[in-house]
Amino acid sequence: MPRRRRVAVFCALGVSALLGACGSDNVREVGRNEYAAGSGRERVAGRLTGQDDGIVLFGTSRTPRDDTGGGTGLGVNAFLWRATLDTLAFMPLASADPFGGVIITDWYSPPGAGNERFKATAYVMGRQLRSDGVRISVFRQVRQGNNWVDALVAPATGAELEDRVLARARELRSQSTATR
């Protein structure tokens, strides 16, 4: 089949799919409340009436929250999340997902150690401030010639970082309760 004809067929299929999506099944019923509970639009209704704070990060909500430190915008405990970011701040951040609770750093070479580099992945698990609420995996590579090769990391390294995160989270929580 010539290329122009394939493109034309592809475009025709795309247009028919779009027109099919606009069928009568998707037309709104008259008098139906789009913002009813369970419709997925109740948050929009809250924003329209001023009863919703929107996305809340790090406990900046205008409404009272529970003692978990989670706020309403994070999927994980806000104290553990902030403490993990603070603890891993010496490493460049590759990505952070506050809803899934995953923080991934980029490779970091300590000053004076140009032949080795480290990377960390932190998992904040849950909305409660608990001692098992954070897990950190540390990865290490050493340079062999022009290549980086995976190397062993002392098992205590991840545990030490977790302990530092927990200590910082407790500090943040005590600061938060002192200002209430």
Please give a structural write-up:
The chain has helices spanning 3-21, 42-49, 78-87, 155-178; strands at residues 93-97, 102-105, 116-124, 134-144, 147-151. By secondary structure, the chain is an alpha+beta fold. It has a domain at 78-178: Alpha-D-Glucose-1,6-Bisphosphate, Chain A, domain 4, CATH 3.30.530. Strands 1-2-3-4-5 form a 5-stranded antiparallel sheet, covered by helices on one side. The model is unreliable at 7-35, 39-57 and 60-71 (pLDDT under 50). It comes from Neoroseomonas eburnea. Residues 1-21 form the signal peptide.
Short account of what is shown:
Keywords: Signal. This protein has 180 residues and is α+β, with helices and mostly antiparallel strands.
Chart the SSEs and their pairings.
Blueprint: H1 3-21, H2 42-49, H3 78-87, E1 93-97, E2 102-105, E3 116-124, E4 134-144, E5 147-151, H4 155-178
Antiparallel strand pairs: 1-2, 2-3, 3-4, 4-5
Structural class: alpha+beta
* Mean pLDDT over the full residue set: 74
Work out the oligomeric state of the chains in this entry.
single chain
* Element order: H for helix, E for strand: HHHEEEEEH
Distance between the termini: 72 Å
Features:
180 residues, alpha+beta, Alpha-D-Glucose-1,6-Bisphosphate, Chain A, domain 4, five-stranded antiparallel sheet, 4 helices, 5 strands, elongated
